[in-house]
Amino acid sequence: MVHELIDPSDPPERQNQKLLKIVETLMRRAEQSSDASGEAYAQFQRAVMLEEEVRVRTRELEHALDLLNESNARLALANAETEAARANLANAIETVQEGFALFDAQDVLVMCNTRFGKHLADIYHLLRPGLKFADYVNLVATSAHLALPEGETAAGWEAYRIARHKDDHAVFNVMMAGNSWLQVSEHRTPDGGTVILQTDITDMMRLERQERERLLDDQSRVIKATLEHLDQGVCIFDAQNRLVGWNRRAGELLSMPAGKFQLGMFFATLYRQAAGSIRILGGTRLEEIEAWVASSAKRAPLSFEIGMGRDRILAVFAQQMPDKGFVISFTDVTAERAAVRTISQVNETLEQRVAERTLELEDALSEAERANASKSRFVAAASHDLLQPLSAAKLYVGSLEDDLQDPGFRDRAAKAGNALVAVERILGALLDISKLDSGLAAIDRTAISLSGMLDQLKDELEPVARLKGLEFRVVRSGAVVESDSAYLRRILQNLASNAVRYTDSGKVLIGVRQRRSRVLLEVRDTGPGIPTEHQDRVFQEFQRLNAKASPSDGMGLGLAIVERACRLLKHPLNLTSEVGRGTCFSVELPLSTAARAPSPLPAPATGAAVPFENRIVVLIENDAGLRAALEITLDSWGLNALPCASCAEASALLQEIDIGPDAIIADYQLDDGALGTDAIAALRAQHGQVPACLVTANRSPDLAAACARLNAVLLHKPIDTGELRGFLGRALT
């Protein structure tokens, strides 16, 4: 009720007056009232409470007024300080020697000093706070006091200026009317505004121009002095083909007096004056040179030669300059061309000699190749022809040993057999060396298990070592290597047999060391050792350092074969030796990537316990002597041999007696180009899969593969009777 009587918007004094009047009225009515219920007293209490509330509200209002007055005082002080700071900032900006302007983040001009834009008198009065930056740039671009570069428009300059405004920091020079210069620098403020400084750099630009002109004068003098010291003649023409510079050497080379060269004369005029003594060489035409000089487009360098007098030659080189002018240089190349002619003549003579020598070398090479081929054919034929009677001799001697009863005669026959074996080894070694030297040796790289090969080597050489009182030890290895089985066996056999042969006491050790993807196969002995100066000799043919060795111990061919075979297989071969302590030969072999190596072939059995009586063996051998020796050997074993010279004879003989053979023994090379493999196939076609054996001196892998496909045993000449008997034992079991 009180709030309805009192308007809160009235000032406190007015509200207090109303409250006092209400209280007086209530008191008066209370005194006049005689209501026994105490209503007057209640109204009095309410009046007292209202009075207390009025006092509280009054105090609050007074406190609020005090705060408001204090805030107004502070605001007035802050405004005064702001105005003072603005005045100080304006004064500070005014003291800046450069033109200064500040644009806010919305690119609106906030303030500038009086030096800002003073060089642009026609728009100076428009540079006031509130001006947009784009409008400011437009005013500057269209000002009559702005000197635009040649070829540039006001719109282009305005676009460039707006583009630079996007950078956080930009500095550029502007040329003004009256040949004055301003450097304009823009900097971005932290709140996104822009500060522009305009610095008058007219004096600086004038000093720079004076310095540049001085440098150009100095440079001109240096260039002139340089041109005069050149051994080349030089002429410089401007974009209009006018002569602007030359040196004294140009007149000397062109045989023109100094007075003929005049500043500003055209190229065509200069050429007409020198044309009488000049001839253009090398196929270049005058029209091409004139077109090059007259062209206004970008020109590639032009070079040609001119002749002066009888034998003087000048090399001419013309090149365009950046200002579309060009420089022509003249170089005396008479001596060089004379030297070239001399060299050309010498080259022709040398080429003729080289051609003649090449023909001679080609003839010599052809002759050497023919001789090498002839040697290879001779060695192959000789080995075949020598092995034929050698096989026959071994068979005859072998049959004599079985028939002779007298111990003395048997001993002589045994010695004769040993001698034949030695001859066989020598022939085999010579044949191997011939193949390796001629490059005709064929290799068949396969995965080889070293364990089987080392076991066979131990079985062969351990008894020989024991007879000499030597310890023969082989360290087994499960390594599988990549190599040619035949040549690797020959390498190991030669190295191990040499170690046993030349070691008198101690031991021979064969072991394998594994090194990542390779293995090192070593053959060590405790022999006399090889002096360092003789270590290269041991790999040569017929070289034996042990003078006491007999021919039966070898002819010095084993290591020669080892060295050539290792070179052919690309197996590094190393030799380390110490005199009096022993020798070590090592061969480095690559490990095979195959999963496993094929199992080695089992050693041929002797077959001594197999009965041969009444068994029929067809023998096809075109050599009569070897055929007779084989017939005697087979007969001595109790076999019924049917000796034939050809497949046709064997087929006719079997048809005549009307019986099938139990085994076939055929020579590989028969008469008239016939082959033993074909004979075996033909007889099998008639009589079924008869066990067969092919006898040959050919040791090529291709023939071994052919025998494997034919399922025929391959025996090499000279024929080993033990191997032959082993084949028959297996075939007739």
From TrEMBL:
<dbReference type="InterPro" id="IPR004358">
    <property type="entry name" value="Sig_transdc_His_kin-like_C"/>
</dbReference>
<feature type="coiled-coil region">
    <location>
        <begin position="61"/>
        <end position="95"/>
    </location>
</feature>
<dbReference type="InterPro" id="IPR035965">
    <property type="entry name" value="PAS-like_dom_sf"/>
</dbReference>
<protein>
    <recommendedName>
        <fullName>histidine kinase</fullName>
        <ecNumber>2.7.13.3</ecNumber>
    </recommendedName>
</protein>
<keyword id="KW-0597">Phosphoprotein</keyword>
<dbReference type="Pfam" id="PF12860">
    <property type="entry name" value="PAS_7"/>
</dbReference>
<dbReference type="InterPro" id="IPR036890">
    <property type="entry name" value="HATPase_C_sf"/>
</dbReference>
<dbReference type="InterPro" id="IPR036097">
    <property type="entry name" value="HisK_dim/P_sf"/>
</dbReference>
<keyword id="KW-0175">Coiled coil</keyword>
<dbReference type="InterPro" id="IPR005467">
    <property type="entry name" value="His_kinase_dom"/>
</dbReference>
<dbReference type="InterPro" id="IPR003661">
    <property type="entry name" value="HisK_dim/P_dom"/>
</dbReference>
<dbReference type="InterPro" id="IPR001789">
    <property type="entry name" value="Sig_transdc_resp-reg_receiver"/>
</dbReference>
<feature type="modified residue" description="4-aspartylphosphate">
    <location>
        <position position="667"/>
    </location>
</feature>
<feature type="domain" description="Response regulatory">
    <location>
        <begin position="616"/>
        <end position="732"/>
    </location>
</feature>
<feature type="domain" description="Histidine kinase">
    <location>
        <begin position="381"/>
        <end position="593"/>
    </location>
</feature>
<keyword id="KW-0808">Transferase</keyword>
<dbReference type="InterPro" id="IPR003594">
    <property type="entry name" value="HATPase_dom"/>
</dbReference>
<keyword id="KW-0418">Kinase</keyword>
<dbReference type="Pfam" id="PF00512">
    <property type="entry name" value="HisKA"/>
</dbReference>
<dbReference type="InterPro" id="IPR011006">
    <property type="entry name" value="CheY-like_superfamily"/>
</dbReference>
<dbReference type="Pfam" id="PF00072">
    <property type="entry name" value="Response_reg"/>
</dbReference>
<dbReference type="Pfam" id="PF02518">
    <property type="entry name" value="HATPase_c"/>
</dbReference>
